[in-house]
Amino acid sequence: MRDVISTPGAPKAIGPYSQAIRANGFVFVSGQVAIDPATQNVIAGDAAAQTDRVMKNLAAILKVAGSGLEKVVRATVFLKSMGDFVAMNEVYGRYFSQAPPARSTVEVSRLPKDVFVEIDVIALAE
Predict the structure, then answer these.
(1) Domains identified in the chain, total number
(2) pLDDT digits (tens, 9 = 90+) for 11-20
(3) What CATH number corresponds to the domain at position 10?
(4) pTM higher than 0.85 for the full model?
(5) What is the reported pLDDT for 126?
(6) Which residues partner with 102 through β-bridges?
(7) How far apart are CA 80 and CA 90, in angstroms?
(8) Banded pLDDT at 59 (limits 50, 70, 90)
(9) Where are the alpha helices (H) located in 1-126, listed in sequence order?
(10) Beta strands in 1-126 (DSSP E)
(11) CA angle 78-85-112, nearest 5°?
(12) Please, how many CA atoms are within 13 Å of residue 115, restricted to the half-sphere of its CB?
């Protein structure tokens, strides 16, 4: 069983991919950037503000998939600059204060729409 997950509570896919796929007891959420789903525009602000928007987008997708941030088992964080690590991590930690998921964080040369942060997650579907 493979279900495509889509919600207007998160940014529309800007390419040939789904917001998320639910399969075999997991939800695989595509990388989210700091796009406001109401306007489909990147929000203004620094890495902390963008991380907050990304986390809200992830939460919206997971909710529609029947999951939630508390069920995330793996996250990957992509940063435009490791100089933003502390700011990202402080906001990220607010969303994962109890039993945080396994995570990798890497610096990349460029992200979609020239944002500061992108995060993808894998969560339990039930």
Answers:
(1) 1
(2) 999 889 999 9
(3) 3.30.1330.40
(4) yes
(5) 77
(6) 74
(7) 17
(8) very high
(9) 47-64, 85-95
(10) 2-5, 20-23, 26-32, 35-36, 41-42, 72-79, 102-107, 117-124
(11) 30
(12) 28
Token code pair at residue 73:
């088992």
Whether pLDDT at 43 is above 90:
yes
Domain hosting 29: range is 2-124
CA dist list (Å): 81 to 10, 58, 116: 24, 21, 7
Taking the C-alpha atoms of residue 9 and residue 23, their distance in angstroms, rounded to an integer, is 21
Place of tokens 């306007």: 39
d(CA 52, CA 84): 13
CA quadruple 7, 12, 15, 19: dihedral positive or negative?
negative
Alpha-carbon distance of 106 to 78, in angstroms, equals: 5
18: Cβ–Cβ under 8 A, 6 or more apart, which residues? Answer: 4, 5, 6, 30
pLDDT above 90 as % of the chain: 95
